[in-house]
């Protein structure tokens, strides 16, 4: 069966350059073309002043002021992104853009007056300079004309903002497409190997009935293995799952690991808070973290180790923390086992970003003795 291969498309390479230097080159090229385009619109007005370098410099500065204004607005957008949503955010950005335009226009007119004198400028520049350099008065219509001009000059943001929004929409679309392709690939692999888990599942159930009269402990162990296989076959196929089912899976997995490693590993699993039927999370989100902690913290060493798991539900929010010991550095190098979680944690972060945007947190802390993962997410999807 063929696998799905993720390749960066030409469109993706064009809109999302892989290196910082190429990104800078794209930005510089865009702004050079942008300023040249707007400067060409003003040529009929400035044509008779073209031999005068002071006029040319003034025009260049006036059209260039949109560059710092744009990046400051983008900065404010990211600041507000986690705090304000919808129409209030739009209003704040508009007011901020008007304020920036007023400040930068005033600075340009003051510098021009200081360096060359406004009398050497075209009459239109002198008129606008007089408006901006006069103190604002509520009863003076000229003061309100300044605000009107600041509002009208927001049009200079339209092209870069439109491109930015198109880039954002394209990134979201590509991200969803990649996740869908990865999900399809996993589904194909699952279908390919499904006969084997079913066979093993049936064999375990048959072995359970044979072993139960001989050893209840061994039969109980097989029963837990059977429950995990049942979860993998019948419960883990949906995109989201009830939190109580996921935690039940985690609990059984931890019990199996406790039996397997009871002599050299100290394992604790604490669960607090009230679970509701409407509490849901992406399927296998928590078990990925748990498996990662045992893989890199317990199975990677022959010596004593520990895994502490803590799940707390408060106000429809899940706080999930895992702390596990780090194996001896020499042993880890010898066995060529990494410790960042590899693709498991990377894919987990991608899923969280897709489902929760900025309504979740995922942090990792590492030192010489232990590795810690802290997860916080909303349970109402």
Explain this structure to me?
The chain is of the alpha+beta class and 381 residues long. It folds into three domains: 10-169, no CATH class; 194-235; 239-381, Heat Shock Protein 90, CATH 3.30.565.10. Helices cover 62% and strands 13% of the residues. The chain has 15 helices and seven strands. It has helices spanning 10-15, 20-41, 43-46, 53-64, 66-81, 86-115, 123-133, 141-152, 158-193, 195-211, 216-235, 243-260, 285-297, 329-334, 342-356; strands at 240-242, 265-272, 280-282, 305-314, 317-325, 360-366, 370-378. Strands 2-4-5-7-6 form a five-stranded mixed beta sheet, covered by helices on one side. A two-stranded antiparallel sheet has the order 1-3. α6 crosses α8, α10 runs antiparallel to α11 (216-235) and α12 runs parallel beside α13. Residues 1-7 and 330-341 have low confidence and may be disordered.
Brief account:
This protein has 381 residues and is of the alpha+beta class.
Q: Which class of secondary structure composition applies to the elements?
A: alpha+beta
Query: What integer is the average pLDDT?
Result: 77
Low-confidence stretches: 1-7, 330-341
Percentage of residues assigned to helices: 55-70%
The tally of structural domains comes to 3
End-to-end gap: 35 Å
Q: What integer value in Å does the Rg equal?
A: 31 Å
Global shape: elongated
Give the helices and strands as they follow along the chain: HHHHHHHHHHHEHEEHEEHHEE
- E-strand count: 7
Fill in the keyword field for this structure.
single chain, 381 residues, alpha+beta, Heat Shock Protein 90, five-stranded mixed sheet, two-stranded antiparallel sheet, 15 helices, 13% strand, disordered N terminus
